[in-house]
Amino acid sequence: MGLGLRRMAGVYRQYWRINILTTLEYRENFLVWFAFTFVYHGSSIAALWIVLSRFPSMNGWSFRDMAFLYAIWMVAHALHNTLFSTVGEIPEHIRDGEFDRLLVRPLDTLFQAIATPGQVFPDELVLAIFTFVAATIYAGVHVDALFLTFIPPIVIGGALIDLGINLIISTAAFWFVKVDALRWIFVQLEQEFTRYPITIYTRSVRLVLTFVFPFAFMNYFPARYFLHKGMSGLGLPPVAGLLTPAIGVVFVALAYVFWRFGLNRYQGVGH
Amino acid sequence: MAIIEATDLTKVFRRIVRRPGIGGAVRALFSREYEDKVAVDGVNFTLAEGELVGYLGPNGAGKSTTIKILTGILVPTSGSVRVAGVVPYQRRQENAENIGVVFGQRSQLYWDLPLRESFELLRAIYDVPRNRYLENLAHFSAILDLERFFDTPVRQLSLGERMRGDFAAAMLHDPKIVYLDEPTIGLDVVAKEAIREFITRVNRERGTTVILTTHDLADVERLTPRVILIDEGRVIFDGALERLRTEYGTHRTLVVTFAEAPIEIDVPGAELEGREGLVARLRFDRRLLSAEALIRRVMERYPISDVSIIEPDIDTIVRRIYVEGYQHGPVGTPS
Q1: How many domains in chain A?
Q2: Which of A52, A78, A179, B42 allows an S-S link to A128, with CB 3.0 to 4.6 Å?
Q3: Cα(B5)–Cα(B88) distance, integer angstroms
């Protein structure tokens, strides 16, 4: 096992090397992406601001609070996009047969799928971290040892929740081959449900966002904790906001079980 | 010692029955019918360590499915398989250490980067010790002339250069067995020769077991003393290439140039295959009639100016088996 991990670390480093070299090979493309990242997130924040300037607060959340809410999600999501976005390309590789290549190599299939480079650059993550720092100051969040200790694992937990969703959708490709529609729906819903405090939704939606697809743990519960927002409608204490890392790990583990199930099916019956 | 053992290997796929056109596709949205397709049907064979075998068959015969089972990509529906002592689908990663795979139509090299970067990655994936890696690289470069394009992005390589790169890539970790799935497809003569040379040397010098699927029978004639023919998922011949030639290459062709054009050509024991001006092609069964006897019969009937004999080539033989099917019951047993 120790040897396996050492090997995986070596492979992971090599994959990133390839990734960065490939990205630099297409400088113009990279610069366009970089600009797009700014425009995309800038317009999201602007849209939020427009809504909020008409309604000074939403269920007790001011614009400043919501900037913080958005920023936590943004960092977690950016971390996911930087490290795990290639999981989303699995369906394409199943369809064109490239996936078989992963199966004839002496490493875990999912590890390879994650490590395989997809022209990712940490630009989004860098931008997200700047936004997060700004939003934290803007929202007047009290930065203490607790905050500094918990924010990194919360962000990682949030990225794992994203990974879980991504993996579940990609696994569906073992049955349906093409899963674009499913992915699009989830991308839209995630954006919708992480932008506002979930208290604006009905109880059933909140239950789903908490216990089924735990997007609420990516940003809502942690933000509520650090902004001292009191009880949520679901009766969970504020400290639930610190559970995000655990939720992320469990959610990914469940997604992985589903992945193994799908992979066995693929090897058993083809597609 | 057997390095690959396949016993009663069977793979059944469940497929959606597709009806033609948009109407059919819309109907399939609501009700689906399935059918079972038997891709591999009770295949048996054994390979000894260091053998070089051609695995042949028409498109859809089950070649790729067999290879996918041997490489651990697919689980067989029934039957058993062992590759270097390992059941591939049960211990996929362990099996992967032992094998190298070249899919002729699909590269494992990184398109945008020089060959060396892909090789470095593979070195890490297979955990090849640095010395061994450099040794292998030097050896392969010498045979495949890799140095010339080692630092060029793969996307700028010719197909032949890319294939050479892919071959070296598949061999960097000293696999015991390599599976070559149509490795020479689309290559020019020079590149084909380089690849064939490489396969022969790897097999001879390193004792690597090689399974080669191909449609180019010149590959087979040059490379593989033993062939396994598969059709509709079943092994229809397994044995020496020579035996395939003697058992199926029963018909030779006598090409006759007449001194003057006869009105009608009729020679007992021979079948007129074609005729063009003064030249006629007569097909005859080697077992029933000697060439000498046939020539005598022709000369008794017509004035001729020249004769020559065409021996059946492997291409013709295999085509005949594909088209006519296998009629005489299994001929080959593993040699």
Answers
A1: 1
A2: A78
A3: 11
